[in-house]
Amino acid sequence: MDYLSRISGPKDTHGLSERELALLAGEIREVILSCVSKVGGHLAPSLGTVELTVALHSMLDSPRDKIIWDVGHQCYAHKIITGRACEFASIRQYGGLSGFPCRFESEHDIVGTGHASTSISYGLGLVEAARLAGASEGHVVCVIGDGALSGGVAFEAMNQAGHLRTPLVVILNDNQMSIKPNVGAISLYLNRIRLDPTLSKLREEIERGVLRIPGIGTRAYSLGKDVKESMKALLVPGMLFEELGFAYIGVVDGHDIHALRKSVGQALETKRPVLVHVKTIKGKGYEPAEARPDDFHGIGPFHIGNGVTKNGSNGTTYTEAFGRAILRAAREDERVVAVTAAMTQGTGLEPFEREFPDRLYDVGIAEEHAVVFAAGLALGGMRPVVAVYSTFLQRAFDMLVQDIALQRLPIVFAVDRAGIVGDDGPTHHGVFDLSYLRMIPDMVVMAPSSQEQLHHMVYTALRQDGPVALRYPRGLAARYTEPAELVEIPIGRGEVLEEGADVALVGIGTGVGIAREAGKLMRAQGVVPTLVDARFAKPLDTDLLDRLAGTHALIVTVEENVLAGGFGSAVLEHFAGTGVRVQRVGLPDRFVPHGARARLLADVGLTARDVAAAAIGVRTGAVQIS
Ligand SMILES: Cc1ncc(C[n+]2csc(CCOP(=O)(O)OP(=O)(O)O)c2C)c(N)n1
Fold this sequence. Notes:
binds thiamine diphosphate, 5-stranded parallel β-sheet, Rossmann fold, 25 helices, globular, 7-stranded mixed β-sheet
């Protein structure tokens, strides 16, 4: 590590020659590969941006100049260059570096990202703030992938930037991949530019031609690049970015430090918004990742020699169970269609896609659109199932209210990664959905406590005439059994699993398993609780709750959701003013960091031990009801 050992911050790259910068990039790539092979992480995106990161830092003065990483999963080289090489092995581990930019971790991480398509908005705001403050703050460079560019927010920001003519540099990191191959008309458009050398040539010729036109050429030259770029925009119709008010530079080889530095240099001199179209290879430099960039997008520990993952799962995940459930439903009802926002793989829809390619819509990273598009499908008589991670559905809250619930449309939301997700941390934990779904009128909200139940719930959800959300966690369930016969679960009915006395433990989703284990601990101490699977956060089974209240001294609710507005809150609201004693166990009113799920649950007090302690403590008066 001849060069990396000399880098304690971005400024140390400034004196290096381009040849040395390329060697430094090679060393950084080795560190990323070695660490991620041990602890897992977003390998392919980060391998693809090593040269780009080195080139940017070699020309910028970070943090005075600011780099905003869209999504942020490609920022590993940035972390290494900005003084975190020694800690890099701790990435995504409990107490270690975050896997995403984090403004509390380094002054070089301008803002914490994790959700896609926001970088240009942030960047524009930063430049405008500096302008308003009259400060001569440095450059702002937003690095956005072609996948993230499919998100509407990015275009909303470009629309404003083009209007304001704000000098902002956008680097389009085009590797033709979202997590899977990118989709959409913009993606096809980018491909055309990438593949058609005549277009770039035409641009160059126009540039030269403009300069040769007597009078205009020299005047254009003397007025600087700004006018020249505008003339190109006029002369090359269809240049989408130029039409939006951005000067366009490209296509640049994203692994050639010299080419990158030249283009970025031009961009930094441009006095209006500029987009540098950089072509990169996802997984660059590691053959298995280049060959299977989707598998290496985010990966667990693997053997560097052959790229085979180490902890092969030996069970069925909830996601896979959902994939089977929807496939089964689709075989029986041809109106069933699936909608995903760039997460076909992550939401378990690949088998569906293989069998029903015409009935699977990947809309790109566009959750708001996905939800309203599903509304249109439902209006047209289809039975759409929107499969989406809990954290990303947050984006579409208004659509859930306005375009789905208010219209009483029969759409199923398969809300995956509900609860603590682990290593990706607070940007990705799905801990708010029970709260933000439960408050919407006419929305049915349920959560399976087993994969078997998930099958019944998908079946049930598709038989309702209004919106239904079912939320389930990341990872494996205790055992997988697929029911031969599917049954419709009565809406708003919980289930008593074990009869006891004195204390009723009422869990929902993963809370049921935690409550069950708590019950075992309590029995060892002579208390035999009643165990209930609530199944629904909305509507609540108020009959069952009232019955429990009549026969038990205490009701303890257990949920993997924030307590604020969650399932336990619904139970509290039901009993408000009645004197019924309710103790809630769930997630606290603070952001939970990254780390292994079990460790995080222990930290926040959401384990069987905590539930048992709370139940027994409150019962004996040792703990006050919160
Ligand atoms: C709003 C939102 N939806 C979904 C995701 C999940 N996600 C993370 S990275 C990614 C693909 C990003 O593709 P691109 O921007 O091209 O970056 P690349 O990984 O190809 O470098 C997706 C869909 C997300 N982070 N944010």
